[in-house]
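Worked problem 6 (solution included).
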Amino acid sequence: MSLEETYARVLSRYDELRDTLATPDLSNKQIVTLSKELAEIEPVAQAILELDRAKKQRADTQELLNDPDFKAEAQKELDQLHKNIPALELEVQRMLIPKDITDERNAILEVRAGTGGDEAALFAALLFDMYRKYAAAQGWRFEVMDLTENDLGGLKEGTAMITGRGVFARLKFESGVHRVQRVPQTESQGRVHTSAATVAVLPEVEEVDVKIEDKDLRVDVYRASGAGGQHVNKTDSAVRLTHLPTGTVVAMQDERSQIKNRAKAMKILRARIYEKQRFERDTAYASKRKQQIGSGDRSERIRTYNFPQGRVTDHRINLTLYKIDEIVEGTGLNDVITALIQHDEAEKMAALTET
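Solution. The predicted structure is:
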């Protein structure tokens, strides 16, 4: 279907909705449903109408070039229209991209050390701190939910809730395997090692998004271990939830209260189940589009941080930036994220013209 045909369908539906809402004898339910659809489609329809007006104005102005009295003014107006129309076309196409209902949601960040032993844990800690700094730069709240460190200050695994406007939209492409190439602190020969850490970014979901039946849930309580004071060894405050149909397991011991630990664990459990459903749906879409940028596959190597060369490469879009210090400090990460979002938008806009 061509873009012009898509525009025509939007305008036709827009007129149909307005005509239908103007008719009497509609039920309250019908009015609510149709009004909601109209509110969603109206900005797109108005943008298409503005584009049509600009194209008509360009055609009319083009004719004035033949009139010596108006040629100079017409050329000036045409020059401006030649700039405005492509911008209007791009804006309309962006508005036609199917909306991801999770884009405006908060996100749960999970970082785990992968292959590479202590060096992998140190890299995982670096990544976790990178996202903390990036969140601060964006004005978001970064709340650590769970943290397990090793003796060297490395991170075995860490979970955080990131709260703010459009968090998931900015961070959703960070899921996958992040690889580091550098000389470890424990390396005496100065040799470069390769290690990895896994990042998962999950949208925050509510009970209405994922319904978990009590019969499908096994709850285990136990005494917490690790840092936190003597209280952790005196009360069964730690909670482990197992979702039996999917085998998904979440353990939480960060809080002193069993109730708070269970609430946090449920939040993460819902997010992981939702992610599984989302992954299956996005993978099916990606196989048709021949791209994996939005699949969120944790097993996919997505990025390499090469410290000796000072570069960061995102393998999905073949982007290489020689600003590793700025990126790991969070200030340069926005350049990578913006490039990923723009690439995804371009892929989806290309899909609009496919039959």
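Discussion: Helices lie at 3-21, 28-64, 71-96, 117-138, 167-171, 258-289, 324-328, 333-351.
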